[in-house]
């Protein structure tokens, strides 16, 4: 599709755990690269020292790996793939812009800037920086700079904005986008007082030097793109192609997914901790703002790589539906190798003190209904908690006609059973049916309630096998 070799990147700021929105950005860049045989780069954007989180980088990469995403270039294998290690590189280009007069030192203090903003707000104006040198003669400028330096003020570097210009691009997702230079907010900072470049500057230098061909990211970055185009122009570089993926909406609140939403799991770490299968999470994320042709929703990573088409990235918001995630995980668990499900549930059962010789049986029993590994624990209450207090529904079943008859007939059969296994228990229901003439719900419901204390649950003959003969006989004997 492109003449240039496709090179894309995921450029996280290590300010916290891997959020589903960032994971989506990584995943689509990964699919994009793998589909076209391009290169997938990971670069760490750690110039915001205030929001820097120790360990943020490691946890980002670890969670991406868990999802099944791999990459070709990263700080692990390539030098200077962290922005904090590239300060000399940015300095070179900042100096170039200062020398050509496209950028300048700005001595306005944070207090002055805040007071400007306040005034603008009072006058219902959009916040914008007012060039401090406007109206000064060269001598006045020199005197101003000297005075500021003498006062110990460290300058920032700002880039000149052409307020009359338009910054436009053909967005892979959104189509033609056009920003007016007048709406940028005035000359903006490319180097902060602490010597670090700002994101909008560093990102351009990096994307250019790393020969990034396509920048695919979340649409929270769309207002940054005109600023970045400005830097490309100032440095005389060709800009990559941009694509801004739509925001992710909470299916319940119908608002932008917020880290404060409590009805959804939003961090990849959460899914790992709760025992979701990574390929289910991968599959789920791949549908946040993208759909292939057709109705099918379950695709392996390889299939998604094959199917990926950037033209099918959706223009309308992606809906984050936790129920769908759980359904998908359930599907993946159901079809997984049983050995894998044993491994999946084991840590949770261990923690609950329930990882005993029944482990395999229990994993197999619940495999068809599990939505996550963690869910195994409450489901196994039936085997480890004392017989429950009966609820209304359960009492009603036991009060039904013929309930005692079937329970006792079944108990007699069980008692006589030599080889007590699930497979041998199953046919006993048929035998009791012919013997008593009671069938269907009226047959198995009373037995279920008597054995488990509940009207719902996994397959009865398996529950009985796991509970053991002695315990089941005891329970049925009560009715
Ligand atoms: N470091 C930016 C972020 O985490 C990435 C920006 C970009 O992709 O250009 O949001």
Number of domains: 4
CATH architecture of the largest domain: 3-Layer(aba) Sandwich
CATH topology of the largest domain: Rossmann fold
The biggest beta sheet is recorded as: 3 strands, antiparallel
Main structural class: mainly alpha
Task: Give Rg in angstroms.
Answer: 32 Å
**Residue share in β-strands:** 5-15%
Spans of 5+ residues with little confidence (pLDDT < 50)?
A: none
Number of strands: 11
Query: Count of helical segments?
Result: 21
Listed once per kind, the bound small molecules are:
glutamic acid
Task: Give the strand order, joined by hyphens, for the main sheet.
Answer: 3-4-7
| Helix share, percent | 40-55%
- CATH class of the largest domain, anyone? Alpha Beta
Q: Give the overall pLDDT as a whole number.
A: 95
How is the topology of this model organized?
Layout: E1 7-10, H1 20-36, E2 39-42, H2 56-67, H3 87-99, E3 103-106, H4 110-122, H5 138-150, E4 156-159, E5 166-171, E6 175-180, E7 188-191, H6 199-209, E8 214-218, H7 225-235, E9 241-245, E10 248-250, H8 268-274, H9 278-286, H10 301-307, E11 318-320, H11 322-334, H12 338-351, H13 359-366, H14 376-379, H15 381-384, H16 392-399, H17 403-416, H18 422-436, H19 441-452, H20 460-467, H21 469-477
Parallel strand pairs: 1-2, 8-9, 10-11
Antiparallel strand pairs: 3-4, 4-7, 5-6
Helix pairs in contact: 1-10, 6-7, 9-11, 12-13, 17-18, 17-19, 17-21, 18-20, 19-21
This protein binds glutamic acid.
Glutamic acid (GLU) binds next to strand 8.
């Amino acid at each position: 599709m492109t003449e240039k070799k496709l090179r894309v990147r995921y450029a996280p700021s290590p300010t916290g755990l891997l959020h589903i929105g960032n994971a989506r950005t990584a995943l689509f860049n990964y699919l994009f690269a793998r589909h076209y045989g391009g290169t997938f780069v990971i670069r760490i954007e750690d110039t915001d020292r205030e929001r820097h989180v120790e360990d943020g980088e490691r946890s980002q990469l670890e969670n991406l790996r868990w999802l099944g995403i791999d990459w070709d270039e990263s700080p692990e294998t390539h030098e200077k793939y962290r922005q904090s290690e590239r300060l000399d590189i940015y300095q070179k280009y900042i100096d170039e812009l200062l020398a050509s007069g496209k950028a300048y030192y700005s001595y306005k203090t944070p207090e002055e800037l805040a007071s400007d903003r306040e005034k603008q707000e009072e006058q219902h104006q959009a916040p914008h920086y007012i060039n401090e040198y406007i109206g000064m003669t060269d001598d006045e400028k020199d005197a101003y700079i000297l005075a500021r330096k003498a006062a110990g003020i460290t300058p920032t570097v700002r880039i000149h904005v052409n307020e009359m210009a338009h910054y436009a691009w053909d967005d892979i997702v959104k189509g033609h986008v056009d920003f007016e230079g007048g709406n940028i907010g005035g000359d903006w900072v490319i180097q902060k007082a602490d010597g670090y470049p700002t994101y909008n500057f560093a990102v351009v230098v990096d994307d250019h030097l790393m020969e990034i061909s396509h920048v695919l990211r979340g649409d929270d970055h769309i207002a940054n793109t005109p600023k970045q185009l400005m830097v490309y122009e100032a440095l005389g570089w060709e800009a990559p192609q941009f694509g801004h993926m739509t925001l992710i909406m909470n299916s319940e609140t119908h608002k932008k997914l917020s880290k404060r939403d409590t009805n959804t799991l939003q961090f990849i770490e959460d899914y790992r901790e709760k025992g979701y299968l990574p390929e289910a999470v991968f599959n789920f994320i791949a549908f946040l703002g993208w759909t292939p042709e057709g109705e099918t929703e379950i695709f392996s990573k390889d299939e998604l790589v094959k199917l990926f088409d950037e033209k099918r990235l959706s223009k309308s918001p992606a809906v984050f539906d936790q129920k769908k995630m759980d359904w998908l995980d359930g599907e993946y668990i159901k079809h997984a190798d049983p050995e894998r499900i044993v491994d999946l549930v084991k840590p949770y059962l261990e923690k609950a003190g329930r990882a005993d010789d029944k482990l395999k049986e229990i994993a197999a029993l619940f495999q068809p209904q599990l939505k996550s590994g963690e869910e195994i624990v409450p489901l196994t209450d039936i085997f480890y908690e004392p017989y429950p207090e009966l609820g209304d529904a359960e009492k009603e079943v036991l009060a039904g006609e013929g309930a005692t008859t079937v329970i006792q007939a079944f108990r007699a059969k069980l008692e006589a059973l030599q080889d007590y296994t699930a497979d041998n228990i199953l046919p006993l229901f048929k035998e009791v049916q012919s013997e008593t003439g009671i069938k269907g719900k009226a047959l198995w419901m009373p037995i279920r309630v008597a054995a488990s204390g509940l009207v719902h649950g996994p397959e009865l003959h398996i529950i009985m096998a796991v509970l053991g003969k002695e315990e089941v006989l005891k329970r049925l004997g009560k009715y």
